Amino acid sequence: MGAPAYGAVLLFALAPAAAVVNGSGAGVNSNSVLVALLDSHYTELAELVEKALLLQTLEDAVGRHNVTIFAPRNEALERDLDPEFKRFLLEPRNLKSLQTLLLFHVLPARHPAGSWPAASHPTLSGEDVELAAGANGSMRVAHAAVTRPDAVLRPDGVIHGIERLLVPRSVQEDFNRRRSLAAISAVLPTGAPEVDPRTHRLKKPAPPVLPGAPPVLPVWDAMAPGPSIAPAPAPGPGNGKHHFDGHSQVKDFIQTLVLYGGYNELADILVNLTSLATEMGRLVSEGYVLTVLAPNDEAMARLTTDQLSEPGSPENILYYHMIPEYQTEESMYNAVRRFGKVRYDTLRLPHKVVAREADGSVKFGQGEGSAYLFDPDIYTDGRISVQGIDAVLLPEDDKKPATPVSAPDRKAPAVTGSRKSKLRRGKLLEATCRMAGVFGQRSRLASCQ
Ligand SMILES: *[C@@H]1O[C@H](CO)[C@@H](O)[C@H](O)[C@H]1NC(C)=O
Ligand SMILES: *[C@@H]1O[C@H](CO)[C@@H](O)[C@H](O)[C@H]1NC(C)=O
Ligand SMILES: *[C@@H]1O[C@H](CO)[C@@H](O)[C@H](O)[C@H]1NC(C)=O
Ligand SMILES: *[C@@H]1O[C@H](CO)[C@@H](O)[C@H](O)[C@H]1NC(C)=O
């Protein structure tokens, strides 16, 4: 162990007691924000910083300039963190991800509550983070509220307490990728399956499927029959051989939606309408792939009561936004460029969604019920792809000509700047809850009270 590392450990050991630091180089004295962090009640963060071997880096940083540290509550790191994600962070081979994540919590400048610049700021991780201010003086950093502004003030920096961990996009992506790889490589290759074309069922007891190969049955045959789902001829074949951890992947993409911002309503629905997320997870586990066209919050807010009034509406609407293919922004754009118009199947049989090129982007649907691909590739893990769109799509015969939605002027997607994500309960979720109440299925929903 080299001298700097030893100094760092010494710093950590001494900090709570005397905070007298020797030999660890310039920059850190007993009055440093770094010493204060190690001595604070943010013990989980302090421990992670140490595990990530970042003390020296931070010492060097405070030697050069002031810092602003966002410190998640202990509970945010202990209890509220997805155990699998935590395990990922603590695996030695993922040290780089842990370091990136922690350095994402440190800005190389002094931003006390009194001078809170609501803008995008570089962090020590290299990625930018968004600071925002509420009208009432509340402070936010990315998707986390600042719960204890100026928790620690020192000559060389400040610490703000925040409600939860900030996860930079690159780390979320590393995590997603690592897990998909693990899922695929954990499977042994096996023979090809056979399907009876007349019955649409598998011949013989569930033959194994090659890892990564698409399942033999069309996705609709694998979908669970439900009150609101278009023709689902038989219960899913569920051969018990799950090559993919679809449920985790669905969880990941919901998490990614939340972090991305502007898709809270969809994320809410997927979390709360558990049957839908479970179904998606099951399909992915069985080897199906999905592209989700995710309407953003503004789009969801434009839904009319009429459009929501039919039984099963929320589920039907969402199934119409799921394409049983893996498509990225690039693949769809190339397809519409080449073919002009492309019709994609949806999970809502027999409805298809039409895509074409418009204004250098992909446009789905027709007329006023059309939507631009607005936020490309929000999430792509090889099995689930999520593409943000700026309107809710409705199949042709669902559009009620009697109640034309006054489509507000929308422009082709610009690069999305800093949209404020507001957390609220949307119309679709309310309708879902109402429906569930009517049909006595309240228990399906995590929180409809
Ligand atoms: C640390 O520094 C103090 C003075 O600042 C000195 O008295 C002490 O001997 C030093 N300790 C070590 C281990 O170098
Ligand atoms: C940190 O900020 C204080 C107050 O703004 C300033 O006096 C000090 O020189 C800064 N320290 C460094 C290392 O830039
Ligand atoms: C300020 O407004 C936010 C919502 O914008 C709310 O969550 C927070 O509790 C409010 N804070 C105070 C101090 O009123
Ligand atoms: C579920 O719905 C409730 C209220 O509608 C909302 O407050 C909550 O955030 C939702 N759950 C999640 C994890 O989004």
UniProtKB/TrEMBL annotation:
<dbReference type="InterPro" id="IPR044654">
    <property type="entry name" value="FLA15/16/17/18"/>
</dbReference>
<dbReference type="InterPro" id="IPR000782">
    <property type="entry name" value="FAS1_domain"/>
</dbReference>
<feature type="region of interest" description="Disordered">
    <location>
        <begin position="395"/>
        <end position="420"/>
    </location>
</feature>
<comment type="function">
    <text>May be a cell surface adhesion protein.</text>
</comment>
<feature type="domain" description="FAS1">
    <location>
        <begin position="29"/>
        <end position="166"/>
    </location>
</feature>
<comment type="similarity">
    <text>Belongs to the fasciclin-like AGP family.</text>
</comment>
<keyword id="KW-0677">Repeat</keyword>
<dbReference type="GO" id="GO:0005576">
    <property type="term" value="C:extracellular region"/>
</dbReference>
<dbReference type="InterPro" id="IPR036378">
    <property type="entry name" value="FAS1_dom_sf"/>
</dbReference>
<keyword id="KW-0964">Secreted</keyword>
<keyword id="KW-0654">Proteoglycan</keyword>
<dbReference type="Pfam" id="PF02469">
    <property type="entry name" value="Fasciclin"/>
</dbReference>
<keyword id="KW-0732">Signal</keyword>
<protein>
    <recommendedName>
        <fullName>FAS1 domain-containing protein</fullName>
    </recommendedName>
</protein>
<feature type="signal peptide">
    <location>
        <begin position="1"/>
        <end position="19"/>
    </location>
</feature>
<feature type="domain" description="FAS1">
    <location>
        <begin position="250"/>
        <end position="378"/>
    </location>
</feature>
<keyword id="KW-0325">Glycoprotein</keyword>
